[in-house]
Here is the input.
Amino acid sequence: MGHLEENFLEKNLDSEASYVFLHPDRVALQDVTGQMVMLQFMQTELKSATLPTTIHCDHLIQARTEGKSDTKLAIYENNEVYKFLESTASKYGIGFWKPGAGIIHQVILENYAFPGGLMIGTDSHTPNAGGLGMLAIGVGGVDAAETMAGMPWELLYPKRIGVYLKGEMNGWTSAKDVILYVAGKLSVSGGTNSIIEYFGPGTKSISCTGKATITNMGAEIGATCSIFPYDERMELYLKSTGRKEIAELANKYKEHLVGDSEIEKDPSKYFDKIIEIDLSKLEPHIVGPHTPDLARPISKLADDVKNNNYLDKISVALIGSCTNSSYEDMSRAASLAKQAQSKGIKAKIPLLVTPGSEQIRATIERDGQIDSLKSIGATVLANACGPCIGQWHRPELKHGEQNTIVTSYNRNFPGRNDGKRETMNFIASPELVIALALGGNLSFNPLDDSLTASDGKTFKLDAPENAPDVPDNGFVDIKDVYITPSENPDAVQVLIDPNSERLQKLEPFAAWDGKDLNDLCVMIKAKGNVQQIISRLQVLG
Here is the structure.
């Protein structure tokens, strides 16, 4: 309640009609949406943002060949954008994360998210920070600019959906399967204007980054945000990422960071809708194509492929993204690669790996997971969004060619990943994607089906090894990926090329005269959702 305007504390709020005004703790911007935010913020003529803000360069790096060369080329192609964002960050007291530092949501989780906090970000997967007990919500650029200028942030008072978790996951089942199951139950719009709260004894069996996977994909069901109660797994992650003091503070106020006991006793009294999941019985799931709520257990996929005439042969497998690129994710995926390596086989199709951050990349390079993945043919892409948001160059595909991909990403609307509406994306956990890459076909079920080793003998994959939440030897300390704001901001010049075709300073609007605006031109009218609009624009572009 500390983030709520005082005059709302005693009101009876209606989730269908009431708006509340909130004061977030911080703001996060990515390099595409952040451009307009900074241009708008400049219009306020303030000397600095009024609350902690960071810019993250992760959306403009296109996947072409491999991480280093792709990042280098992106810096060249987007130099004027990066210079503009870096200069405005330096001038207005904003932290700047360079291209290659990592995906915004992974970097936020590693550095800024904290239990009990409220954050807004100009990206729909901002709720990723809910894995650390933070209410984190994706917003538009105007909302961010106004909040940075000190104005309260307006939100339609949300409904509450409770997801009760009991039991523990085992074998092939992972945190990804929890949210894929929930998506199948609620649909892509079932969480609209709702906060999804996970509760129950099963929450403690999921790692902090596993929780983040679940809250991240709440965006795919329309949720305002999702959140888990604070526990020892969050404490471990905070301490392992250099935030011992925050962990100790969270422990001190733990009673305020978890649900009241009355909620578990009578959840129907507190939630508008309740879903119950027994994690010990949950099967590995896979969703798609073309929508993240078309869910089924992996055991049912082969029948779906046959009955719906899906293209069985997989063209590319991809793991990573802001949803599934943690140390735990990469370790479980690498354990399957080790099994394949020991049998002398490789992935039957191209396998692309996206680390979530430079910290993750350097750590899994040190600890051997990258070598294991490369041993079966993987290519490591840049620490960026890449194919997950459509930044993927695929010259090998012919125009109109149908193909199937499997990913550990979050969205799979037509054209989402490569601008080609014929591409069918099936989403699963990283470990299931690795198994399908080894099998080569959608109809391959690693829980039941066998592979052929290099000596001609058949074998079945063992379930992925249990991986630690965080590395036993700690995360690698990363340098030269972050730029602090200038200590002399008045001397900093905002860099915009006067001949730029991408950037232009905004001219202030004339003061409103109090009259209605009439005869305005409608620029575009469309049906569907934002992702469908974006995919069409990618195709047109």
